[in-house]
Design a protein that fits this description.
By secondary structure, this protein is mainly alpha-helical. It has six helices and no strands. Helix 1 packs antiparallel against helix 2 and helix 1 packs parallel to helix 6. The model has no long low-confidence stretch (mean pLDDT 88).
Length: 159
């Protein structure tokens, strides 16, 4: 597997997971007593918003800094290379404070799992992986729309 394709796929998988976790944390923290539909709408809309903002950052800054950290870790002894890349991922992530550090840790975990798989993945699969974040955004917005339509119909029917 080419390192570029692995990093792009890792970014495509990291962005939706991290956006969802971040949205859940914010909504649960802010809307403790809200109803189920309000909470679900909040989580889905924030996931879409966070994903729309974070995905381009992960694909550009995240992939480049991850490549750099892998290149720098090659200079360390083999038994320390994982620790070096982990530390460098956190260091590069801290540029964007705790939000970036959390995404960097998740990126590192997903990248390491992909690296362990050792499957042959080409550039076509890396480009196809962009469908994951796009699909998550479209699904989240679509579900919110359907929930709003159902709530509106119920309100009109039952007052």
């Amino acid at each position: 597997m080419d390192m570029w394709t692995r990093k792009i796929i890792a970014a495509s998988l990291t962005a939706p997971v991290y956006a969802f976790v971040l949205a859940c944390g914010v909504v649960v923290w802010e809307q403790a007593g809200a109803g189920i539909f309000d909470t679900l709408n909040g989580v889905l809309l924030l996931t879409a918003a966070y994903l729309t903002v974070s995905f381009p950052v992960l694909v550009t800054y995240g992939v480049v800094t991850s490549m750099l950290s892998d290149a720098l870790s090659r200079r360390a002894p083999d038994r320390f290379s994982a620790y070096v890349t982990f530390g460098l991922h956190i260091g590069f992530g801290l540029v964007m404070l705790w939000l970036g550090a959390g995404a960097a840790v998740l990126f590192w975990i997903i990248d390491r799992q992909l690296q362990r798989k050792r499957r042959r993945i080409g550039s076509k699969q890396a480009l196809t992986s962009f469908a994951v974040p796009v699909g998550v955004v479209l699904s989240a917005v679509g579900i919110v729309y359907v929930i709003d339509v159902v709530e509106d119909v119920v309100r009109r029917l039952y007052g």
